[in-house]
């Protein structure tokens, strides 16, 4: 169980590193775009594969998110990474920030996606 907790804490630290890397001006645009997608998905309360589906529900949490983090970390220059690691460690000691605007934006985007799917399904069956 301790191994799993350490793995989860490391994963959380890496997401915070990506969060800071996205905000860094020295990171290339393509890395920022991919990193933004990974961070938003990691922090999003809604998953592509719903968690209540047996086994497959946790597939994104165990495989998709870590793979996305791994690829995003490889896209970011080493000097940017080292600065972002320091910032992430500081933030983890002080507690994560609460950004209600970004959180609201994530919920709004997912709500619009679900609404579009409902409208399309309604049109399809009527």
UniProtKB/TrEMBL annotation:
Q: Does the keyword Nuclease apply?
A: no
Pfam families referenced in this protein's UniProt entry, alphabetically: DUF1232 (PF06803)
Keywords on record? Membrane, Transmembrane, Transmembrane helix
What does UniProt give as GO cellular component? endomembrane system
Its localization reads: Endomembrane system
Which InterPro entries does this chain map to? DUF1232 (IPR010652)
Query: By what name is this protein known?
Result: Uncharacterized protein DUF1232
Q: Source organism's superkingdom?
A: Bacteria
């Amino acid at each position: 169980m301790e191994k799993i907790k350490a793995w989860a804490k490391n994963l959380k630290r890496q997401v915070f590193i990506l969060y800071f890397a996205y905000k860094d001006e020295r990171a290339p645009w393509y890395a920022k775009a991919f990193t933004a997608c990974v961070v938003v998905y990691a922090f999003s309360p809604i998953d592509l594969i719903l968690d209540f589906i047996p086994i497959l529900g946790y597939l994104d949490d165990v495989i998709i998110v870590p793979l996305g983090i791994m690829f995003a970390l490889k896209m970011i220059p080493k000097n940017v990474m080292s600065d972002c690691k320091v910032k992430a460690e500081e933030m983890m000691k002080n507690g994560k920030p609460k950004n209600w605007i970004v959180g609201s934006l994530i919920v709004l985007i997912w709500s619009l996606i679900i609404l579009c799917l409902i409208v399309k399904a309604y049109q399809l069956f009527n």
